[in-house]
Design brief:
The protein is an alpha+beta fold. The protein has 12 helices and 14 strands. It has 3 domains: 93 residues, Rossmann fold; 71 residues; 124 residues, ATP-grasp fold, B domain (D-amino Acid Aminotransferase, Chain A, domain 1), CATH 3.30.470. Strands 9, 10, 11, 12, 13 and 14 form a 6-stranded antiparallel β-sheet that branches. It has a 4-stranded parallel β-sheet with strand order 2-1-3-4, sandwiched between helices. Strands 5-8-6-7 form a 4-stranded antiparallel β-sheet, with helices on one face. Helix 4 links the parallel strand 3 and strand 4.
Length: 336
């Protein structure tokens, strides 16, 4: 296989806001480098700060294959979605999803609308744009979760993000305003589905999506009344309760018909957003085990400790084989 350029984003300095989640890309970089090494594939790794920097890096590079690990650029979380398109303009082919799917999935408002329009189940809710206040009168009474519309890695989500309306209207309004200030983007106020959470990893092989064994988050250590969510601390704060008490179970403990329904929904979500190569689809299940699609994550975290790598292992796919599959897919898309 020909030489590969591994691209990743820069991520600021320790102490910066959200540094932990952004610096986590280096775990992925080291894993892909190790995979390339085991495959005997020559590679060079380059960090890029923004699209202008990317064009300067690509100009004159000889590699035609790019392993794209650019997740977000500081200052504009949406810019990184254009990396595949820019690479293609320089005659290079990226692993992972293309620009349209990345843009669509990153805008959770549009993605949920598209999924719902395709007849796929998503939690109900509303959007509060910056400058507007939450008017909970538009929502049925119940429990909701508040989240930024364009963030990944549970950024902006804490245990306080789960609220009961109308009883906690004032708290919800305050949280919405706080998220507006911190992230300068719309906030989704979404129905909280309480029972189970699933992570469904999907890879492309022979041009078709292949669903890996389903993973379930184990919330059994959580107290009654404690929101059963994987918030920012659970993912990135090694000193937090959630970090140590949200293990995954693979395969998920589900009836066969429910598991099959989830697999079919994951493939339908893949098709709806025009995905390719690798994706993680997150679900919540209610008390009756009805599945709801929380979000579609193209180019999810593929670090060795993340759920995607665990699903690959459970599916009998060694990490270096996954790297090879993605590079083979990208090689097949090279425009001669």
């Amino acid at each position: 296989m020909e030489a590969v350029l591994i691209l990743h984003n820069t991520f600021g300095e320790p102490g910066d806001t959200l540094y932990e989640s952004r610096a986590g890309v280096m775990d992925q970089v080291r894993a892909v480098e190790a995979g390339c090494g085991r495959l005997g594939v020559a590679f060079e790794t380059v960090a890029v700060a923004d699209l202008r920097h990317l064009t300067a890096v690509l100009d004159g590079r000889q590699e035609r294959l790019v392993f794209n690990l650019a997740e977000e650029f500081l200052g504009d979380v949406r810019q990184a979605s254009f990396v595949p398109g820019v690479c293609r303009a320089f005659g290079k082919s990226c692993t992972g999803n293309d620009t349209p799917a990345l843009l669509l999935a990153q805008n959770k408002i549009q993605a949920k609308a598209l999924l719902a329009g395709c007849g796929l189940p998503v939690p109900q809710g509303m959007v509060v744009t910056p400058g507007d206040a939450l008017d909970a009168a538009h929502l049925p009474a119940g429990v909701y979760i508040l989240k930024p519309a364009f963030c990944d890695a549970s950024e902006g989500i804490t245990a306080e993000s789960v609220v009961r309306l109308p009883e906690e209207n004032d708290k919800a309004a305050y949280l919405v305003a706080s998220l507006h200030r911190e992230f300068s983007q719309s906030v989704i106020v979404e129905q909280y589905i309480p029972a189970k959470e699933l992570n469904v990893s999907v890879i492309e092989t022979d041009g078709k999506p292949l669903v890996m064994p389903l993973a379930e988050i184990d919330f059994s250590a959580f107290a009654d009344g404690q929101p059963k969510i994987v918030d920012y601390a659970a993912k990135w704060d090694a000193g937090s309760f959630g970090f140590h008490n949200t293990p995954r179970k693979i395969p998920a403990d589900l009836p066969a018909d429910v598991a099959e329904r989830v697999r079919e929904l994951a493939k339908a979500a893949w098709a709806a957003l025009g995905c390719r190569d690798y994706v993680r689809v997150d679900f919540r299940l209610d008390e009756r085990l009805n599945p709801y699609i929380l979000e579609v994550n193209p180019n999810p975290d593929i670090s060795p400790d993340a759920g995607f790598a665990a699903a690959l292992d459970a599916g009998g796919i060694a990490y270096e084989r996954f790297v090879a599959m993605m590079l083979e897919n990208a090689e097949g898309r090279v425009e001669n």
